[in-house]
């Protein structure tokens, strides 16, 4: 007998179809609508499947203002950075050779290492630069020593020289006489020789051999007032001087802007071709020594519909482009690669008051972005088989500035921000990186080409294992800094080598490892009391999410974790 369903049956099916269609349209047109959908993720970590070394590529930091180094909050932060890393941290700073009295200012600094007397003879002065390097070396840190910028007495276009830039004014105001090529390349070379020689005498040959020397910053931009050819000439003179002072020293460059774009790629290729087959401006021979290759990579956040939207894809494409260029040179592809500035955007000293797109910097958006982006840096290096040495986070601290002004810094007035705790987490990850599979992750190509913009967050992990520990860093990241439902993460860890393990679970979110949220609860004081500062300092440290515990396993364990959007967790196992 044929069944004839009643009319309401057809209406019910039609309503389902219409509701499904409406939901699809809403998700396509209004991605924020997806926030009402609860997120789940299943993540499996296999400790028996290594995928590469857990190299400390994160243990590199930099900043524009070198005179902050030996100031109160600068010393405090450097001590904390040194303490969080199991290996020596590398530090890169601009303005190491700039002329001035050492008074710091935003995007400015000076050491006065070179002046000339009335007869035009060189006068070398090392006190200020020694104070900077002493601060590093005393903490076991290593300089990524920048040869730049041009001393006033050597500049071919010296005036005006020192700028007085302020946030909110044109960025072009900073490009003054310090950007120009030297009026005398021999004097430049002698200055570099004398500086490296002085460092060897002060710190010892073995110590200086462990440093990296690099020429200039972003010479494909207004930071360099000369041409590609003039930069290559300056590089040849710099290499000759460094190697004369210390033949075993390491020097490289060119620290171009994003090589994912045509300008950075053209300059980087031109420089590398000069190093391989160009005529050396000092020796007249073919080629120039190069010990590492450096370029920069930045994201591009903006304000959309009243909230900050990050753009991790832009940064990842620059990294991919730079790695691809280096890999295309058989003679050079083995060289270490240093991403000399690797950040969510380009201006550390542009606060959120003048640049509202930078409002991500105080809270957990910055920390989750950092976790998710570093995992992709490792993956890009793996995929292109390059020698990825380090990625400099261009973020430090700014002395005597308003609390939580929204600079791209790791601490404000001596109080650590959430992002610094991601690096504390990285400091607990050693040995080998191991295989991670997540059913809620963005694959590498999609993250680079389209960024993290879909209905679902990037819920993913990075994991490591060494002789007696394992660690899993998890994050719930999305480019849109808006509220979302908490994700339920089912984490399975396979290949645990002991039946009994000691488990720690650390967390960065709105309630943990977060001085910014506490400061807001205090009423956002610009003159906090001593008692409030102590509370803020405590809140700025990496916090446990649960109490440490012993667990029993039969080679694997399963953990169920609630992970809010922009939160980062680190689960460690010891045996």
UniProtKB/TrEMBL annotation:
Entry keyword set: Glycosidase, Hydrolase
Domain of life: Bacteria
Signal peptide stretch: none
Catalytic residues, chain numbering: 218 (proton donor)
SUPFAM superfamilies, sorted: (Trans)glycosidases (SSF51445), Glycosyl hydrolase domain (SSF51011)
One GO BP: carbohydrate metabolic process
Family (UniProt): Belongs to the glycosyl hydrolase 39 family.
Protein name as annotated: Beta-xylosidase
Organism from which the protein derives: Paraflavisolibacter caeni
Lineage: Bacteria, Pseudomonadati, Bacteroidota, Chitinophagia, Chitinophagales
